[in-house]
Amino acid sequence: MRALILVLLGCVSGLGANAAEAKRPLPTDGDAQLAYFLNSEGVYKDYMLQCAGCHRFDGKGAENRGIPSFVDSIGLFSRIPDGRAYMIRVPGASQSQLNNDELAMVLNYVVARFSPDEYDGGKFRLFSAAEVGASRPYKFDDVAEARKALEQQMSEQGWEPAPYLFGQAGR
Ligand code: HEC
Predict the structure, then answer these.
(1) Looking at the chain, which terminus has fewer C-beta neighbours within 10 angstroms, N or C?
(2) How many angstroms is it from 154 CA to the middle of ligand 1?
(3) Per-residue tens of pLDDT for the chain, all 171 residues
(4) Closest Cα to atom 34, ligand 1: which residue?
């Protein structure tokens, strides 16, 4: 029922619900930022309408359908430049109907919501519309290869992102 209401809301108000909210200055303190994202209805709605159909409301995705979990994983990507570009360039994000500002907010949201450890000690650097705009036009020839290269970089740091089965037989 909730999903239905969200879909209806999306139709009435148009996409990009967080445009007005995005104008408000974001808190700079890590904990306050986390609270901001967790309480922002606009970005929640954008996530639900544009991403949750595949990634699910709880961010767990569906491993057996090749949709990786964000939980305690997606924040790791946001720590390295290639990982940040990857988050922007994956088809689900780059080809969504969100504008650059809205997509930046949704990427901040997924880290805040599903990988909140990134906010400890203020490690997390927010995505901006400019950063999204710079990477978004560059499609991957092979997104699974790009993910593999990132896994390699991460394992050198001792980081372990969620399992990724996209591109394997049957998925
Ligand atoms: C139609 C289904 C679908 C939708 C809708 C979708 N995604 Fe995805 N997403 C996938 C699949 C499949 C993958 C794995 C393949 C890939 O890396 O692109 C993925 C991977 C990702 C990854 C990389 C995760 C990792 O661990 O490698 C990110 C980040 C991501 N999506 C963000 C988003 C965002 C943000 C949205 C909404 C704006 C979104 N996706 C909408 C299907 C979807």
Answers:
(1) N
(2) 19
(3) 555 554 444 444 444 555 555 556 788 887 888 888 888 999 999 999 999 999 999 999 998 899 999 999 999 999 999 999 999 999 999 999 999 999 999 999 999 999 988 876 667 889 999 999 999 999 999 999 999 999 999 999 999 999 999 988 656
(4) 93
- How far is ligand 1, taken at its centre, from the CA of residue 100, in Å? 16
3-state SS of the chain is CHHHHHHHHHHHHCCCCCHHHHCCCCCCCHHHHHHHHHHCHHHHHHHHHHCHHHHCCCCCCEHHHCECCCCCCHHHHCCCHHHHHHHHHCHHHHCCCCCHHHHHHHHHHHHHHHCHHHHHHHCCCCCCHHHHHHHCCCCCCCHHHHHHHHHHHHHHCCCCCCCCCCCCCCC
Domains of the chain in start order, with CATH, are 16-156 (1.10.760.10)
Out of 7, 37, 54, 136, give the residue to mutate to test ligand 1, the one with the largest number of ligand atoms within 8 Å of its CB: 54
